[in-house]
Amino acid sequence: MCRVCGGPVRQFFDFGRQPLSDAFVDPDRVDEEYFYRLAVGTCESCGMAQLLDEVDRDRMFHDAYPYHSSGSVHMRRHFEQTAGRLSGEHLRGPDPFVVEIGCNDGVMLRALAKEGLRHLGVEPSGGVAELARLQGVRVRTEFFEEATAARIVAADGPADLVYSANTICHIPYLDSVFRGLDTLLAPDGAFVFEDPYLGDILERTAFDQIYDEHFYFFTVRSVQAAAARFGFEVVDVERLPVHGGELRYTLKRVGRQTPSRAVAELAAEEERRGLDTPEVLDRFAAGVERVRTELTELLRKLRADGKRIVGYGATAKSATVTNFCGIGPDSIDWVCDVTPAKHGKLMPGSHIPVRPTEALTEPYPDYALLFAWNHAEEITAKERLFRESGGRWIVYVPEVRVI
């Protein structure tokens, strides 16, 4: 049953038994790992793509949550530019107030804080919330829902802007989120959020975007349908190149702003492409199976030829790839990552060791499987010497190839 409208949901892929994507494992605690079924479907009534099984939010977002939004130079630049855009477009009145849902380590809000703007981050993961505070960002360490919004209004008054990046798709209870927005936003306030776009996921066969934290996979049409149930409408939409393809949606209460042409144009494009039709979704499923076959065969052949292979980027996405494709320490020696909290631990489910990125040089391997493909340009530039030493990158989005 659809979590948004209650309609019937048609499953279009089942990735089987999966671990929590960001639950990196202590080597002496592998027996305590939590698993769940990762299956995805689309509502036949409102078109919302969603997971069929929900993982308890406290299992995913907690004090030890390891993802840092500021970990990438490219993403830091993106959020700094976003702060400037938001300030110019939505925070121009007297004493404006902005709230960010899922502020993580405060990479976006700290730019607004430096301008002296009233702000508040809402972040349930205590470790990254504390990093935000150290950057001068005000943070409430809790999940955002209707009750949270009421507490914020009582303490700080209504918000001119509520912003969120890569977070709204994590929240199954959209009804409480929208009721919270209705409570929190000023009459002409805007809700701006950006999340992975189903259209890009399907087009690129980017199946690793599907994991426990990503409960919803939005389109313009499905967001329009969800928003309408709570008195909101999509008034603008913008394509973003980050994280392999996202959309930035701007919502306001119905009648407060005439929707831009971009909204109607992209909704019409989605209808032409049939993003929620069985034919398109079944074609995606066939593509996922093809990538699995080609990737595992390539790794097997390279290993048989005596090649050293490592992984690059211990991402949440990589949990889906390694566990669905059966990639373990027998396929790749280890995975390197920039996040210190992951070093010395094992990849979820696959139990591949995680090492610092400096390990790539000790000595350079023959191949590196690029799990963090959405940061390919930044990573390949940083690791230029790997390529010059004769190393080759393996990628699997949109298809398996060696570069």
From TrEMBL:
User: Domain C-methyltransferase, which positions?
Assistant: 241-398
Can you tell which superkingdom this protein's organism belongs to?
Bacteria
Task: Indicate the segments forming the Methyltransferase putative zinc binding domain, all copies.
Answer: 2-61
Spell out the CDD domains in the cross-references: AdoMet_MTases
Q: What InterPro entries does the record tag this protein with?
A: Methyltransf_Zn-bd_dom_put, Methyltransf_Zn-bd_dom_put_sf, MeTrfase_14, SAM-dependent_MTases_sf
Pfam short name (any one): Methyltransf_14
Q: What is the name listed in the Swiss-Prot or TrEMBL entry for this protein?
A: Methylation protein EvaC
Species this chain originates from: Streptomyces pseudovenezuelae
